[in-house]
Amino acid sequence: MISAQQRTALLDLCHKFVNCGEEVNLSHLLDLLAQTIHDHESQEWQDWSKYMAELNEAWVLIYKEGEDTAWPEPPPEILQAGPAAMVDAGDVTTLTTVAWHLLSQDVQKTQRAQMRAQRKLELEGGGEIGAARNPKSAEQRRRGGRTRNALADELVFQFKEPNNNGELMPVVYCIACDHRRVGRDTGRIREHGEECKKLPVYFPTLFKQLIEDLAARAHSTKLEGKSNPPPAANFNSYKDGAQEKSRESDTILTYMNPAKISEKHKIHIELTMFRMFICCALPWALMNSEFFINFVVALAPNFVVPDRSSFFPKHLAQEVAVWNLKFKDFLGGKVHLTLSFDGWSSRKKDEIYTFHTTTPKRRSFFTDGYVFNGLSVTGDALLDVTKRLLACYDPLKYSAAAMPTSYLPPGNTIQQAAAMPEREGALFDTAGGANNEPNTTGCGARAVNMVLLIVGGTSDVADGASGF
Question: How many structural domains are present in the chain?
């Protein structure tokens, strides 16, 4: 039989699940139940397991399907007396740790919100940018060790949280979206910051620094000589006789080994290999194939083929950052650009959209992409994404945005046109007129029904898009 403290912990966690089922799911409930009741054949365990399953079904019906149903009642309390009511001290400690971790998430969220507001004031409010944490003292610097990455400190909040065994572990949270990750891997922090959808909205200055940092780390930048590459692994710099010599004795192979690969050569191989996989649409699993590794070793015996799980995410983020900066420079002197986009559905039922920029000379460039994960695509949602994209590439350079009218909700297109950043405009439907009327002359399920959003234009444009 469970004690009153154990029952309270179970009921508190169930109450937490009812209020915010996205953070505490059925697996958390069953894990706590397994730690509370060790005998899975007992009637008490079956009653609580059935109650949690019914609780999960009720949550899905109420929050996902919108049905009005009643929450199930928990199992009745079984009174205990005498020595049977005693609880093992280890069980109480485990339950207290798990319950504290889950029930204190609201307090932690409030604390992170306050820290986020303070950090935003420092980074975006025009004040001095202070370090996220105190720098190392002179004594700590004399001890050596890896230099702390200041940019990674600004991108996350770091805390100590107990794991399932009660041990405190370092945990980081994204400064913008509260994405949680155990440990402090600066590479993964930068990769998440590049993919975070909220970081460029709430912290544009910090996001710009991140893009520049990723671009500086890219192999293509290092080969162009714009960034100093890191020193090669196991590389001994040989100094003049007047300088201090290395403590290790050198062998003839150090000077005469023809297969020794330089850092620049290593970067060149990795960049060429990365471009081959991306441009030829090769499967990433090929990198860990024994035949591919033997082929690379035959060409460069001292080159170590990296692991694909860390190679592609790192270089994708870096090279995309380089391309974004070069594309902004390319658009520096351009005007009267047109923004268009196309979308489709994936096998996971996600809506994927690609944005394209067209110059007056009809040159089209892929600009950005966006994935609506499980969300219904509406005109308001697309307009919000379009605003963010135009803000990144200067909306004053764009004169029109072309999109199918089926993406826009009827009746409020003029309001959407007025909501474009910094510019007012008028909306024209090449098929149904200026009031976004439905197209009655469609040619199939996806009729060619385009809309031109004239940013900063006038309402006397003849025949909608005839001037373009």
Answer: 4
**What confidence tens digit (pLDDT) does each residue in 180-190 have?**
888 878 888 88
**For residue 84, what is the DSSP state?**
G
Please say if the pLDDT value at position 325 is more than 70.
yes
First-to-last CA distance in the chain?
Answer: 77
User: Who's near 152: CB < 8 A, 6+ residues apart?
Assistant: 184, 186, 189, 190
Which residues make beta-bridge pairs with 452?
402, 428
Last residue of a domain, one of 332, 348, 372: 332
Domain stops at, among 299, 332, 365: 332
Distance (Å, rounded) from C-alpha 466 to C-alpha 468?
5
Residue 354 and residue 320 in one domain: no
| 351-358, strands of its sheet edge to edge | 364-372, 351-358, 337-345, 398-404, 450-455, 425-429
| Contact of 340 with 401, CB cutoff 8 Å | yes
Query: Does residue 356 form part of some domain?
Result: yes
Q: Give the pair of three-digit tokens for residue 289.
A: 């194939």
Instruction: Dihedral sign for Cα 186, 187, 192, 194, please.
Output: positive
Two tokens at 371? 């994935």
Tell me, yes or no, whether 174 and 223 share the same domain.
Answer: no
Cα R_g (the chain), whole angstroms: 29
Residue 320: other Cβ atoms inside 10 A = 17
My answer on whether 325 and 341 are in the same domain is no
Burial class, 186, CB count within 10 angstroms (exposed 0-12 / middle 13-18 / buried 19+): middle
- 300 and 396 together in one domain: no
pLDDT digits (tens, 9 = 90+) for 420-438: 444 433 333 333 333 333 3
- Could you report the per-residue pLDDT of 350-388, keeping only the tens digit for each? 888 888 999 988 899 888 888 888 777 777 788 888 888
DSSP string, 11-64: HHHHHHHHH-TTTS-HHHHHHHHHHH---TTSHHHHHHHHHHHHHHHHHIIIII
Q: Based on the fold, state whether residues 451 and 348 are members of the same structural domain.
A: yes
Q: Is 322 within the bounds of a domain? A: yes
322 residue type, one letter = V
What is the percentage of the chain residues whose pLDDT exceeds 70? 63
Nearby residues of 123 by Cβ (< 8 Å), 6 or more positions away:
129, 154, 203, 205, 206
Q: What pLDDT, on a 0 to 100 scale, did the predictor assign at position 283?
A: 92
The reply to whether 136 falls in a domain is no
Strands 351-358 and 337-345: antiparallel
| pLDDT tier at 302, thresholds 50, 70, 90 | confident
| Number of CB atoms found within 10 A of residue 140's CB | 11
Q: Check if the beta carbon of residue 335 is closer than 8 Å to that of residue 212.
A: no
Domain that holds residue 179: 110-128+148-200
Question: Do residue 272 and residue 353 come from a single domain?
Answer: no
Q: Say if 96 falls within a structural domain.
A: yes
